[in-house]
Structure formats: structure tokens, C-alpha cells
Amino acid sequence: MEKLPKIAFPIIIGAIVLIVLLTKSAVTIGSGQAGVLFKTFGEGVVIDEPALGEGFHIVAPWNKVFIYEVRQQEMLEKMNVLSSNGLDIKLEASIWFQPNFVDLGKLHQEKSEMYVERVLLPAIRSAARSVVGRYTPEQLYSSKRDAIQQEIFEETKKIVEPQYIQLNEVLVRDVTLPSTIKDAIERKLKQEQESLEYEFRLVTASKEAEKVIIEAEGKAESNRILSASLTDKILQDKGIDATMKLAESPNSKVIVIGSGDSGLPIILGNQ
Predict the structure, then answer these.
(1) Where is the Band domain (predicted)?
(2) Are 52 and 27 in contact (CB under 8 A)?
(3) Which residue segment(s) compose the domain that 35 sits in?
């Protein structure tokens, strides 16, 4: 067996070292992710350069890359808060968020990968307590849910945006009141609905009565006008017209001229 040349050993050792260095230096960042570079022998976290995007990267083996999810994420949070009159309310909300890609280095430097626990959660809880505390249980249960949702979103956004977190939406999924309060509110709402229905029926009946009165008054006025316009002369002319039509009828009859009331003819027989 032939011995390897002396120069082969350094080459093999060099190749092994190179492979190790490449393995340590190669960083693959997946879809929807970004990397923050930390320079061990430099300035530390790189904040004045864009974060590393998706794909394959080569970095110095003594440096580190911290990978963040930069797509929109959802967090479901259940909270106990107090209404304006001190009642315990259970609130369930979905929070849609993502780290600000442009300031990812600053986020890592100041908040670390635990930014959700350190910033976002305290902010959403504080905003929810503040907003819900302005409303009564009746408002929370019925008409004000959309307003509450928007106010929680706006207050949370004011807190987290300066801290490099992009808040996209806050959705209030459920508001749970104490069962006794919920039952009382439902009874009250039912009574209000029944009262509104009764008032509607009264208004409808009143309008129908007004309609009947107007129609009756119209008919009475029409009859009054007609009676006032029917003079003796008009009645006599109409009687003569009717007599002429009957006289032209083929049926046998006897007509006595000028012997009826007001001088109208009398027609005898219609055989």
C-alpha cells in the first residue's frame, strides 16, 4: 500500500476545516422569515442594515443570526376585566400582528424574541381594561361591541407601534357576563322589544282610524255638495229624460201627462 504524499495531509485537514466553517457559516432563512445578524467581534446587533431576507446566506462562523417570523401572526387572549360599575367581565380577543421588518434589528436589541410577552400582551391587556371600564354590562352585551373592539385596537396600536410591532387588527370574539346579569339584560331587552311592538300596533291602529275618519268625512262632503246642487229644476229635467226613455220602450203602458208631482208624467202599466 502506497503512502499518501506529505502534502495530502494538510490538504485534507484544510478541506475538513473549510467544510466545518461553511457549515457554521451557512444560514437558510425560510419563507415568511427574516434574520437579525449579531456580530460577535463587531458592534453586536446590526440595526443600521436591513434584516436578512429569505434564502441562503453566508455569514462569518463567529457571528450569529436570530430568525424571526415576519408574516402576520394571530394570538388569542382571554382576559378578565371590570365594567364601569365594577362587574367582572370575561373578554376573548384575537390579535393580528407582525414585527416591523424595517426595524427588526431594533426590536431584537431592545425587546428580544420575547417581544410578544414583554410588549404586546401587556399592551392589549391594559387597553382592554381601560376601554371596557368605560361601559356598562348592557352596552358590552348589545350595542357597543364594535366600538369597544375599535377602541381597544387604537389604544393598543398607540402603545406597540413605537416599539417596532405592527398591529393589524383586534377582534373581540366573545364577551361573557355573569349569568345573573346576562339574564337580567335579556329580560330587559325582551320587555323593551315587546313595548316597541305594542307602540307600533297603537300607531298602526291610530293611522287606520284616521284613514276611516277621512274617508267618511270625504263621503259626507261629497253628499253635501251633491244635495246642494240638485235643484227642483234639475230633478224635473232628469225625470223628463227618464220618462222619455221609458216612453220609447216597446212595452205597453199608459202615460198621463202633467199629473204627477211637480207636473211630471205618470206612467201606468208595464205589460
Answers:
(1) 24-189
(2) yes
(3) 8-69
- The per-residue pLDDT for 204 is 76
- Other beta carbons less than 10 A from residue 210's beta carbon: 10
- Does residue 225 belong to any structural domain of this protein? no
C-alpha cell at 241: 229624460
Q: How confident is the model over 111-125, as pLDDT tens digits? A: 999 999 999 999 999
Please tell me whether residue 34 adopts helix, strand or coil conformation.
strand
Q: Tell me the CA distances in angstroms from 227 to 56, 154, 222, 232, 261, one per residue in order.
A: 105, 76, 9, 11, 19
C-alpha span between 21 and 26 (Å, rounded): 8
The tally of domains found in the chain comes to 3
Query: And the C-alpha cell for 175?
Result: 364577551
| Residue 265 confidence (pLDDT) | 57
Residue 64 lies in a domain: yes
**Cα-based distances in Å from 222 to 151, 212, 216, 219, 231:** 64, 15, 10, 5, 16
pTM score > 0.70 for this model?
Answer: no
Which amino acid, one-letter code, is at 228?
Answer: A
Question: Taking a C-beta distance cutoff of 8 angstroms, is the pair 104, 46 a contact?
Answer: no
Encode pLDDT of 178-224 as tens digits: 666 655 655 666 555 656 665 767 677 778 778 778 877 777 777 67
The torsion angle over the Cα atoms of residues 127, 128, 131 and 136, rounded to 10 degrees, is -170
pLDDT of residue 61: 82
